Amino acid sequence: MRQKKVKLSTLLLLGLGLTGLEAQTMHVKQTSGTQTSYLLSNIHNLNFSPGNITVAKTVGIPDTYALSDIRYLKFQDLTTAIASVDKQGAIQLYPNPVADVLNIQLTNEGNQLCIIELLTIDGRLVYKEKQNPHENVIQVNVSLLAQGIYFCKVCKGTTTTTTKFIKQ
After folding, report:
1. I need a surface site. Which of 27, 30, 33, 71 has the fewest CB within 10 A?
2. What's residue 95's pLDDT?
């Protein structure tokens, strides 16, 4: 049962990392206390065989771990900040947590086309809208969404920013 949980957790978190949520590092902590870290961009493949996990890297020899010897797998640097900053600017979401209307404040100037996407924690798209904002605040009605953690992805020009919010 523990092996199934490790496999499911790994697949979900790795899948989230590959959908743009930017998990950057995977840590393998063994029961012996040894910890090995991998940049996700350097992982070619994770292979689960009976009782083992093999990390095939883009360069070098694959590493194999017995699932019974793994204390945990940890994915670090998931986008969980309330406000995200990138090279071009930032977005802020408020109120956070939100009940009815989510305000998305864009700090970049300009009237570029924006694509707003709301995603569930498991990466399912629940809202998408294209807007050409004339103001720096875009309002999105989230009253029909179930309570939980969501991600707001804003694509503006060549910049994409993903920020977490909580729906009450």
Report:
1. 33
2. 92
